[in-house]
Design goal:
α1 links the parallel β1 and β2. It is built from eleven helices and 17 strands. The chain folds into three domains: 85 residues, Rossmann fold, CATH 3.40.50.20; 61 residues, 2-Layer Sandwich (Dna Ligase, domain 1), CATH 3.30.1490; 182 residues, D-amino Acid Aminotransferase, Chain A, domain 1 (2-Layer Sandwich). Helix content is 28%, strand content 26%. The termini are far apart. It binds adenosine monophosphate. Adenosine monophosphate binds next to β14. The site of adenosine monophosphate has 13 residues, from β14.
Amino acid sequence: MTKVIFPGQTIGIIGGGQLGRMMALAAKEAGFKIAVLEPTMDSPCGQVADIRMVASYNDEAALEELAEVSDVITYEFENIDYEGLKRLTQIAYVPQGAELVKITQDRILEKTEIRASGVPIAKFVEAYTFEELEQRIDEVGFPCVVKTARGGYDGKGQQIVQSKEELSNAKSLFEHSACIAEAFVSFTKEISVIVQRNGAGETYCLPIGENIHVNHILHETIVPARIDDSLANKAIEAAQTIANHLNLVGTLAVEMFVLENNEILINELAPRPHNSGHYSIEACNISQFHQHVRAVCGWPLREPKLWTDTVMVNILGQHVIPLTNSISKYPNWSVHLYGKSEAKTNRKMGHVTILSTNIEETLEEIEQSNIWS
Ligand code: AMP
């Protein structure tokens, strides 16, 4: 049953990273209180929360305590403990349920569901052992990408394999989990559609982002994506189809490949606000975080509109000092830093959003700043 949660009540968030922080900041604008469960004390979300529970995501006592103080519970990343979340659904109000987390934690389940929803996806096979992979690989062919079913992110837990002789390079991936092998896609672009839905079934997508990765980590999102209208419609329809198939409540980021022939293939799903949607804080009439809060609190959703073209650029550990030294030069850049103390190489520390009247010029400005070179 869908409940309406009001300002003054408490939203519990499992996970204390930057997505939780931006969710919390959006919720606090409306007067909600925030409780967060996160194993580290000084987490990005913990810094802005009203109540912090410092414990692991599967700590039963902490989950019970979170249930006690929260009027609604959401999560900010998918690698939380599924069994713990499932137990929470019995003692607390968790409108998103636990099943979507189970599905998106495991590429085999995720790809099976995407295929079942009827939207296009690259050919793949699942394998529980390396021997099974050897037996089944001809169903996919070469080149292919072998990925661990669980626990991979930002290109970790993946191996591109060009030929049968190279397949043994993927053997070590099985030390972590079962794997999938999928056909290598020679895409022309990567895009993402963030779809959000409330318990009443109201569904909206944010404007489509075009994602540029560097070393497998998201570097820039350009909005609107530089694709034609027919492709944009296909992408939105695919995201909505998956959201309906999964009975989504909350947020689902759908990452897609664009092919030479103007078709799309779904790459992967994330059941939460997504890095490629951060631009919406400044560039839209509703941010992905505000809409997420509305969805889980049973509020009506707002139809997203883009005020202006925009580029979002990620600040990794190695970019923090160059950015800080350049802030005075760029009054039009909106700087977001997440409050992480250690600026490790490749760690996501923040992002910059630039509202633009000319995407090419903005991309040039980013390049010329030398912060990311
Ligand atoms: P993933 O963790 O599955 O999103 O993969 C990370 C990145 O690796 C993607 O954003 C793509 O740039 C690349 N990639 C993943 N799968 C494929 C594929 N089947 N073919 C080509 N590139 C891929």
